[in-house]
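ok so I'm stuck.
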Amino acid sequence: MKLKRRLTLSMFTAIALTVFLIEANLPGLVPIPGVKLGLSNCITLIVLAILGKREAGIVLGLRIALGSIFAGQAVSFLYSIVGGALCYAVMCLIQKPLGEKLLWAVSIFGALAHNAGQLLVAVLLTNAGVLWYAPILIVSAILTGAFTGIAAQAVVQKMRNHKKG
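replied:
not stuck anymore, here's the structure
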């Protein structure tokens, strides 16, 4: 069982890292710095729903560490780890009460927490003047969180149906 679990986590980590690296190399959806879909969070949501909190944390942590090594800098690691940790914490807290049918809502709250974490790092590294950016990040978190959440929810439903049939 341990080997199967490790292989499964490795597979999800590889998928999350690949999606992250592809998205990092694509032009942004909008000409606003820092706004992206966050498609690798779909994988975190899927793992959270299918395998559990611990496994989702492992996949997220490895994706952030490896993604920062392959595509980032030390400063981008700070933004990713703080944003990712807050996102993960919020998603873990609300995932069970909201349930799988509201995975899209879990994603939105996670995206909001992620952006709050990134803003916190920006304030600590620069000054509070960056907070003018918060309304833009709130709107983008709602839109992108809904998109990634709906996508993850659809995959989870397909995986559950496939497992039954």
